Amino acid sequence: xxxxxxxxxxxxxxxxxxxxxxxxxxxxxxxxxxxxxxxxxxxxxxxxxxxxxxxxxxxxxxxxxxxxxxxxxxxxxxxxxxxxxxxxxxxxxxxxxxxxxxxxxxxxxxxxxxxxxxxxxxxxxxxxxxxxxxxxxxxxxxxxxxxxxxxxxxxxxxxxxxxxxxxxxxxxxxxxxxxxxxxxxxxxxxxxxxxxxxxxxxxxxxxxxxxxxxxxxxxxxxxxxxxxxxxxxxxxxxxxxxxxxxxxxxxxxxxxxxxxxxxxxxxxxxxxxxxxxxxxxxxxxxxxxxxxxxxxxxxxxxxxxxxxxxxxxxx
Length: 315
Hints:
By secondary structure, this protein is an alpha+beta fold. It has helices at residues 3-9, 51-65, 97-102, 112-132, 195-211, 216-226, 241-244, 254-270, 281-288, 304-307, and strands at 18-21, 25-31, 37-43, 75-80, 85-90, 95-96, 137-138, 147-149, 155-157, 164-165.
């Protein structure tokens, strides 16, 4: 892929071809002479040459150079020179998960089956990174903005600027990274890189995918109630799942309803305040691909408390 083709395809990084802005770069859509469409992330230009941005640029190259997985965005190449520094990726037609959930027109096409497939795709990507890469790769910034969808709504994890390779010794301390609202609570007290921080972020994004909005208030209500010393169950436990999921879609039916219940139950287990009590991404993948028994009660009667383990079994 020639440098000149990228400059030509973006019209010298013309703002009309801009499709988004990341933490350390602006993303452009470019059509190459072959007809192939790619996404190009150009490093932000700064007066003093921001070292943090350069480090993120290098981290993304190192993280993606050896990865080949259908649920991780492909890095086609990169350029680092005095005029421009940029990375070239496969283009994702549907954009970010966050934008789709906020798009009133598109969101109704984003049905339960497609959403469950996005959750499974995210899980597969993270399981591959944590368990099949050597050394393991920790993303550290899983959010709905960093999950991109192709024309078939297949999920691709992107933006590896904060990713870290997990060392075999115990020296995995690093500077704080992540997106507010998706960061594991233990990172408020320390900054050791661990796969369980990605697990927490996965739980948040999974709930966001099912609820159709960021679940911040729901998470704080559920888990502050869970840690309360009061013996009486909180009213938040009695909230019906059927009334909390995205109301822009018709309620899921039959096996799809069962899979939604499993996905939400797994997401809640990923949000446990104790990192060691969270499942691994491999365990999450296995649970998502398992055919569970039918629900023991109608979907419309299942409460959030039951999915947290307060008030009986649902499957």
